[in-house]
């Protein structure tokens, strides 16, 4: 096939792929440790788990393929002294190396925390996101750039069909919780930002529902160090446009160790049979920091042999351990959400 024909075929494929980004919720940034990257999961989590903290996450999906999906996350939040409100920021970077696709998102978050009854708490959050996505052609050589000797001699005259896209997105989230259970709902792209003609128009609104319970086998605080033994089943459901994803998880914590299993691919009524993925999570929580690792294993006949996904998350945080211990002992002013840390 001539070089120009191959190029046009490649660009046509790119047009379909970039259009898929706008229409498929699966193309949104996804992390297998949702509660470690909770500022990405729901803005209502801002400031709930610590006084202030910084989280770094990196995900490498399909590493066996040339040009894997690579996602990076930086999240930070700060809770004000009056304990009722918090601010945060998120920076997400999504890259597909094979085609030079890059999506960068920067978000500002705010959350307000309220106590409804002696045992029920509510947090509401909002975020505004600036996004930029582009395709880099720096690693491509077009036919008209090559001399008779095969040397790259000049800029290409080929039309570049994909201009960088800039957009603003609005998201809201709510979280209702007690000491042993939680329900969360978040919505993103409420304003359905326009990604341009080449990217298939408006970005569909994304809805994410999360829920879980925690059963404590034991809780102790010795010399300002909190320890627990617990079991937490979780559920999550995400819908964006015509795409749906449901997963169930089970976490066990025996301080400082947390292990978890997540199954993604629960069949849903009226939806195509999804791919099945089993995620294994291992996390260590120590005073001042947490680190977690997860691996996604593809299951069933739809296994692509692409190497699954590796993910690592590091959190540095500061917590007033004396105040936290008093809240746990008194049960009167409990503000931490009982969800897993990973």
Write up what this structure looks like.
- The structure is a single chain.
- The protein has helices at 3-23, 38-41, 321-330; strands at 52-61, 69-79, 85-96, 101-115, 121-135, 165-177, 181-188, 206-213, 215-222, 225-240, 243-254, 257-264, 276-286, 289-299, 309-318.
- The chain is built from 3 helices and 15 strands.
- It has a 14-stranded antiparallel beta barrel with strand order 1-2-3-4-5-6-7-8-10-11-12-13-14-15.
- The chain is mostly beta strands and 342 residues long.
- 31% of the residues are buried.
- It is globular, with a radius of gyration of 22 Å.
What attributes does this structure have?
342 residues, mainly beta, 14-stranded antiparallel beta barrel, 15 strands, 49% strand, disordered N terminus
Secondary-structure-based class equals: mainly beta
- Strand percent estimate: over 45%
Number of strands: 15
Q: What is the residue-mean pLDDT, rounded to a whole number?
A: 79
Rg result:
22 Å
Helix content bin: 10-25%
The helix-strand sequence is: HHEEEEEEEEEEEEEEEH
Strand order of the largest sheet: 1-2-3-4-5-6-7-8-10-11-12-13-14-15
- How far from one another are the termini? 49 Å
